[in-house]
Specification:
The complex is a heterodimer of chains A (292) and B (493). Chain A has 292 residues and is of the alpha/beta class. Chain A contains eleven helices and eleven strands. Chain B has 20 helices and 18 strands. The chains are: A alpha/beta (292), B alpha/beta (493). At the A-B interface, helix 10 and helix 11 of A face helix 5, helix 13, helix 18 and helix 20 of B.
């Protein structure tokens, strides 16, 4: 793997322009993989403790953008970040992971295989020298690199408080446009992203929203890609319809729909088998994007 | 004075009383009293108790050389139950009691210095050995012994009573009907319909359950009420369960009345405490929970080694302990009920309080129970903390009595289907489920969706079969399968 390593100093011709023009660029960029992937990209970020909603949004938007030829940059963290990386890889696109430790120190644990896959066409980069273990404070400073490498930043799901906010702040400092996927007003999970919308971020509700902003911020798409339909078809099933409005526990559904709890449990489980809803790790069930 | 006599008794070896012959030889020589044949300290001390008890009962201790041999020699002898046989042997050998009376009697009991008999642990084990060898049991009077069918018990209170010959056999007492603990009832519980449903399924089908939820959700309270809806013990199960309690020196009256044991060891329990051990080897909690419930509160807090020790008993329904003395088997057919917080802070999925744990920490916490053990838990259910408004306006759920009735009915249905009572698997299980084409298609779709292994499918089918029994349905429908799937552990299949 050693031959894939590269180091680019600030001022060298192949140092990414969008990064050198941002406030406080790193003096040296250490990376593994393909340095040409460090072009203006779509940054996709979101919560580590993501719900299927955030994961689905990250997958759909990152997948489409990668298929259309945009590089997808993110932080390699579990949750939304990894969903974005994986979707970009699945679309045969390029993706860049910016780590808070050395680029050769896989973090989080267990992401070794994913990071290696990223280096095939894309890159894993860091401002920290080889072998540096990630530190708590380094995640925040790492976020400024994600923001700077991005031509546009997309927040798919963020709670309040959230590290995602710092990335959005850096993006605004670096004069990048910030798009946000709106979320339910009833849960913790989307309070941060909805707050960003109130503060003036662009709402991104479908692929054409994203496409318009990407073309303005980065440039025209390199190739046409199929635009997935994000809207679920209407359903007669009131349990499914309720879960599409927001994730709920079976007892909440039973209470709100005045149904028998055992009946709800059976219904939800059947919907899960049909692939229309998934179980969150906290016990709630939520709907997923069509085709997931 | 000269004489010798052999009295039959037994010593505890695990949950079994192994027959032992007590040979007493009184002969000329320097006066002494020796016990040989691998006695432990408690047996050695019998000399002093026997000497005093004999004198206090109006007999005489000969001023001669007394040797007591416990045969077979290589077997270690434990406990104070040898007092009575040694005393009888001595009295017969010296001609103070007639030999004929004790030829075929199994004698056991501890003596007080005044000649009164005291109970010893494991009387039921002695009783079963007496039954097996076809002898009456001469023992301190005990209420539980008289509940053993077919056993002839000769209850003895004072050593001096033997002057009048053997006591007359005790009347067999029919065990009183099972009385469940009325202080606990499911009707005290507000909401929690899903958990109560899961516990009914566990009670009806003997499935292992894990309750997951935030602190204060009522996991412990619900698990304790499980005891109120378990089907009563059958005659055979009563004796098996009572035997374990008896050799552990715990009261067995309730079990003999048909109440299933409910054991709730603290999470600091050692491996020996859980599966059995010590010297002499005593049954652990898994065996005390035989035919009943083993409740492990705060399950991830148990040591990983202790938890993994549960795997073999859960698979084989017994514990095999190999010690220097030999190999011991303890029965351990129990229903495991675990309770766990969803994460270290306990608030993952809590409506009122946000979880503060990092995602990786949650995974590691949930992994503490371990895949192989989770594989043996059929029903996982979330216990949510009810809203305060629900508690104050509680209407009360189903009563334990009504749940108990439906559990018993479901169990009868399953017993009618297969008389063995064993959990079926493979084609036998599929045959019992009698799936329609639609249900079969649903099962295949769910196996694909959840990446179910063969074992995973078996588990879903077993739970679905029990649910159908609770619903009084002969065939297993999609709804039963879907409900069974909802009790699946997230991520583990």
């Amino acid at each position: 793997v050693k031959d894939l390593r590269f180091e680019i100093e600030l001022g060298q011709p192949d140092y990414p322009t969008q990064l050198s023009e941002s406030p406080n660029p790193p003096a040296v960029l250490y990376g593994i993989g393909n340095p040409s992937a460090l072009e203006p990209a779509l940054g996709v970020i979101g919560a580590r403790r993501a719900t299927p909603y955030g994961i689905s949004a990250a997958e759909q938007f990152a997948g489409w953008a990668a298929a259309a030829g945009y590089v997808v940059v993110s932080g390699g963290a579990i949750g939304c970040d990894q969903a974005a990386h994986k979707a970009a890889l699945a679309a045969n696109g390029r993706t860049v992971a910016v780590l808070a430790g050395g680029a050769d120190v896989p973090y989080p644990r267990g992401s070794h295989a994913l990071l290696e896959q990223i280096t095939v066409d894309g890159a894993v980069v860091s401002e920290h020298p080889w072998g540096t273990e990630p530190r708590r404070w380094a995640f925040r400073t790492r976020n400024r690199i994600i923001a700077a490498l991005s031509g546009m930043l997309l927040v798919v799901e963020a709670a309040l408080p959230s590290g995602t906010f710092s990335t959005a702040d850096y993006a605004i400092d670096a004069n990048r446009s910030v798009g946000v996927v709106p979320g339910s007003i009833f849960g913790h999970e989307c309070r941060g992203s909805n707050r960003l919308l109130c503060q003036g971020a662009y709402p991104i509700c479908d692929i054409s929203d994203l496409r318009g902003h990407l073309e303005q911020a980065i440039g025209p798409l390199a190739r046409q890609a199929d635009e997935p339909n994000l809207i679920n078809p209407p359903s007669d099933d009131k349990v499914l319809t309720a879960l599409r409005s927001m994730p709920m526990r079976p007892d909440d559904i039973a209470f709100r729909l005045s149904m028998d709890i055992v009946e709800v449990a059976r219904r939800v489980s059947a919907l899960e088998v049909a692939g229309l809803v998934v179980r969150h790790r906290d016990g709630r069930y939520g709907s997923v994007a069509p085709g997931c | 004075v000269r004489g010798r006599y052999t009295v039959r008794t037994a010593t505890l070896c695990g949950v079994e009383a192994v027959p032992v012959d007590v040979e007493v030889d009184v002969g000329p020589g320097i006066p002494s009293f020796a016990i040989v044949g691998l006695p432990d300290l408690a047996v050695q001390e019998a000399r002093e108790r026997v000497r005093s008890a004999i004198r206090a009962s109006g007999y005489e201790v000969p001023n001669a050389r007394i040797v007591v041999n416990l045969a077979p020699g290589p077997l270690r002898k434990h406990g104070t139950g040898f007092d009575l046989p040694i005393a009888i042997g001595l009295l017969v050998a010296t001609g103070q009691l007639p030999a004929a009376a004790f030829e075929s009697v199994l004698a056991v009991g501890e003596l007080s210095l005044l000649g009164r008999l005291r109970a010893v642990p494991g009387l039921i084990a002695y009783g079963l050995t007496a039954l097996r060898t076809g002898m009456p049991l001469l023992a301190p009077s005990s209420s539980s012994l008289t509940m053993l069918p077919d056993l002839k018990v000769l209850p003895l209170e004072l050593l001096s009573e033997l002057k009048a010959g053997l006591p007359s056999p005790a009347q067999r007492r029919e065990p009183a009907p099972a009385v469940t603990d009325r202080r606990l009832d499911f009707s005290d519980v507000c909401g929690q319909e899903m958990t109560i449903r899961a516990l009914s399924i566990a009670a009806a089908g003997g499935h292992n359950v894990l309750l997951v939820g935030p602190p204060g959700g009522g996991k412990t309270m619900l698990a304790r009420r499980l005891a109120t809806i378990l089907p009563p013990l059958t005659e055979e199960e009563r004796v098996e369960a009572a035997l374990v309690h008896s050799v552990s020196g715990l009261p067995e009256d309730d079990i003999l009345r048909g109440v299933r044991p409910f054991r709730a060891p603290h999470h600091s329990a050692s491996i020996a405490g859980l599966v059995g051990g010590g010297s002499p080897v005593r049954p652990g909690e898994v065996s005390l929970a035989h035919q009943g419930v083993l409740f492990l509160d705060e399950m991830p807090e148990f040591g990983p080694a202790s938890l993994q020790c549960l795997r073999q008993p859960m698979e084989d329904h017994r514990v095999t302990l190999v010690r220097a003395d030999g190999r011991l088997n303890f029965p351990a057919r129990f229903t495991l009920v675990g309770a766990a917080n969803p994460c270290p802070c306990g608030h993952l999925g809590d409506r009122n309080k946000a979880c503060t744990c990092a995602p990786g920490v949650v995974d590691r916490y949930q992994a503490r129970i371990g895949g192989p053990l989770m594989d043996r838990i059929d029903v996982v259910v979330r216990v949510e903390r009810p809203d305060a408004s629900k508690i104050t306006s509680c209407e009360g759920g189903p009563t334990s009595n009504s749940l108990h009735a439906s559990v018993c009915e479901a169990r009868e249905r399953s017993l009618r289907r297969s008389s063995t009572g064993e959990n079926p698997s493979g084609s036998a299980l599929l045959g019992q489920c009698d799936l329609s084409d639609k249900a079969r298609g649903f099962l295949e779709a769910s196996a694909n969706r959840h990446h179910l292994s063969g074992r995973g499918i078996t588990r879903v089918l077993r739970v679905a079969r029990t649910i159908a029994d609770l619903d009084q349905e002969g065939r297993v429908h999609e709804g039963h399968l879907a409900e069974a799937l909802s009790y699946r552990q997230a991520g583990v299949t």
